[in-house]
């Protein structure tokens, strides 16, 4: 995908937003949900996802719950209270960034 570099900088925010909406998710579920929401435009690899999840966990933004499913251990990720607050902050920053980019890409010129 041509714009994958643009998404890469937003991966942590994407993960936090998904967890805010879905309470708890496991890694593969996150990758599939992103693929579904972007109609296949964005595919998150395990090589990108798991380091991001581990970083968010080490920052105290995620809790991990290990559950046995079909004789396998599955890690579910969930926002901590700090993660919930940080999600709101990062989303606000991302929205401001998107607004500023929109003004730069599609300026509304006036003669004022």
Automatic annotation (TrEMBL):
<dbReference type="InterPro" id="IPR036388">
    <property type="entry name" value="WH-like_DNA-bd_sf"/>
</dbReference>
<dbReference type="InterPro" id="IPR036390">
    <property type="entry name" value="WH_DNA-bd_sf"/>
</dbReference>
<dbReference type="InterPro" id="IPR052509">
    <property type="entry name" value="Metal_resp_DNA-bind_regulator"/>
</dbReference>
<dbReference type="Pfam" id="PF03551">
    <property type="entry name" value="PadR"/>
</dbReference>
<feature type="domain" description="Transcription regulator PadR N-terminal">
    <location>
        <begin position="15"/>
        <end position="88"/>
    </location>
</feature>
<dbReference type="InterPro" id="IPR005149">
    <property type="entry name" value="Tscrpt_reg_PadR_N"/>
</dbReference>
<protein>
    <submittedName>
        <fullName>Putative transcriptional regulator</fullName>
    </submittedName>
</protein>
């Amino acid at each position: 995908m041509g714009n994958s570099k643009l998404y890469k900088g937003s991966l942590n925010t994407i993960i936090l937003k998904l967890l805010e909406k879905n309470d708890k998710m496991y890694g593969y579920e996150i990758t599939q949900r992103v693929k579904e929401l972007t109609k296949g435009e964005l595919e998150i690899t395990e090589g990108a996802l798991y380091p991001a999840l581990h970083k968010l966990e080490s920052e105290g933004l995620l809790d991990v719950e290990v559950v046995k499913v079909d004789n396998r251990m599955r890690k579910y990720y969930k926002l901590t209270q700090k993660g919930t607050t940080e999600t709101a902050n990062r989303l606000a920053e991302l929205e401001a960034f998107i607004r500023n980019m929109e003004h730069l890409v599609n300026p509304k010129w006036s003669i004022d």
